[in-house]
Amino acid sequence: MNKIVSKVQFSEKVFKLEVEAPLIAKARRAGHFVIVRVDEKGERVPLTIAGSDVEKGTITLVIQTVGASTSQLCALNEGDYIADVVGPLGKATHIENYGTVLCAGGGVGTAPMLPIIQALKAAGNRVISVIAGRSKDLIILEDEVRKSSDEVIIMTDDGSYGKQGVVTVGMEEVIQREKVDKCFAIGPAIMMKFCCLLTKKYEIPTDVSLNTIMVDGTGMCGACRISVGGKTKFVCVDGPEFDGHLVDFNEMLQRGGAFKAEELEAMEAYQKALNGEAPAQEAAPAKAEEAPVAPLSVDEMDTTTPLAELIDRSAPYREALRKSMKAKERTQIERCQMPELDPVYRATTRVEEVNKGLTVQQAMTEAKRCLDCANPTCMKGCPVSINIPSFIKNIERGEFLNAARVLKSTSALPAVCGRVCPQEKQCESQCIHLKMNEPAVAIGNLERFAADFERESGRMALPEVAEKNGKKVAVIGSGPSGLSFAGDMAKAGYDVTVFEALHEIGGVLKYGIPEFRLPNKIVDVEISNLEKIGVKFVKDCVVGKTITVEELEKQGFQGIFVGSGAGLPNFMGIPGENSNGIMSSNEYLTRVNLMNASDAHFATPIKKAKSVMVVGGGNTAMDSCRKAPGCRACIHRLPS
């Protein structure tokens, strides 16, 4: 949460907010931007930083109300809190002594231009600033611009202040009278386009700062892509500043209107909410019937047996189980099929988990298929070396809580891994049953069963944790690798802090995998368990931007694990792929999973298309297919 410490209204629709963000204030440079989320249901909005006060620990944002999200932000007052502010993001402006520099700011674009003007002047440049607006009340920060400029020209469309005319009129006046070595232009896209057409005619190098549609803003989804010099660039990581003579402004203008209809609907809903009109409620689908579960006495289950005994193949309980059924009998048991939601019903829900989990009887039966091999090859296929036979044999004898204890001794995320790990390529691919031309033991389904049973029993146990060793470890990224590493290091006695760039902990588990495959509540429980063994989490923090590795080391972190995720999506390099309506699955799933765009009560927009084509055939493609019907679409899948 970031507190608003002051608010100034420049005009009817333009406001200046000073916001508490000490780390951002310290790290920001001219040209940087932040991503702002007003509240828990808000969208992520990019805003360029107009200034900062390191001593006060604040940054300055100048916002124009153009839609529901910016209107909601500007409706906040001094003392109110913004849910999330993350940054500084993007590349800082390249500053050097060019000679004479012409800076053109249009409307609210004068605000992000101000720190560039200040930096250019400090570098020894002669700075001529042209600031423009439709009328006098839209000319902002004039006094601040004058303090760092050798000359200021003011242009207004209606002539109510300064000279009458658009910004390019003032620019050309300067260009024709003296040599200009460099130009910077910030404002509406159409303004920057014509500024660049002018400076290209006079062969003056020109940089523009682009403010495109973004979702995460940290280099993950690709929503902000544009064409620069015929190549696709991403504004959030490659920009926001580019050579204006190479930018395809026509494409940028087209992409800027991608959600125009949805934004108008959102603004209308916002106005109705201000007037006290309740939004229409969608009818909730009827709940599917739950499969009956056999009663089991949780209180009678053992949780005191030492872990060493639970994983000992020669322990009396293991020998008794092996003697209770011949191996041949075990191989004749058919693999249990996990119950699923009814296909007709699940077509009506986007978040209810499709796989319902094994019943108690199914889990115990499936566990009997495990031969408890003396040389368990399944363990060789497990990346975290779970003692697979030991947890399965505890399920077979009905000691489900002990099964969970065995799992948690080596896995920080058993309920997650039981759902989304590719067991068919890992542990199950090494199962001895395959050599007998029989299906592998359903290791993943059993892992999920044990983790779910423990969670629902109310008797969740924490893994054994070594005595604290006084050493601090930082984890960059809270996806599955970061969380797993954090759990292992915490169990080993380290003081662990996880730094996450987004506003939610979980990484791809939250933004990439839909709830019908991995419910958020499951991820949240796993995260809570990590917190209980001492792992700390810091959200809205981009290591390398908000805080540097050197600063982490100065804070005493002796080890740093980088689990920063997959990064930007790959595109196919075909004509038209930057057209409106074409998204990477990263962007689409981030919108509908992390930002809940398919829920009308959330601010992030999504296209409700009548027909959708998905290119690809892997998990990500199928997740996109499965989510699209929630947007009332007909799906066509093409293998890539």
Features:
single chain, about 650 residues, alpha/beta, seven-stranded antiparallel beta sheet, 22 strands
Describe this structure in words.
With 640 residues, this protein is of the alpha/beta class. It has 25 helices and 22 strands. A seven-stranded antiparallel β-sheet has the order 6-1-2-5-4-3-7. The longest helix is centred in the middle third of the chain and has 15 residues, at 260-274. The chain is elongated. The two termini are 42 Å apart. Residues 282-296 have low confidence and may be disordered.
Strand content: 15-25%
Number of strands: 22
* Total count of helical runs of at least 4 residues: 25
Low-confidence spans? 282-296
Helical/strand content category: alpha/beta
Task: Please report the distance between the alpha carbons of the first and last residues.
Answer: 42 Å
Reading side by side through the largest sheet, how are the strands ordered?
6-1-2-5-4-3-7
Helix content: 25-40%
The largest sheet is: 7 strands, antiparallel
Mean pLDDT: 89
Overall, the morphology is elongated
Output the radius of gyration: 29 Å
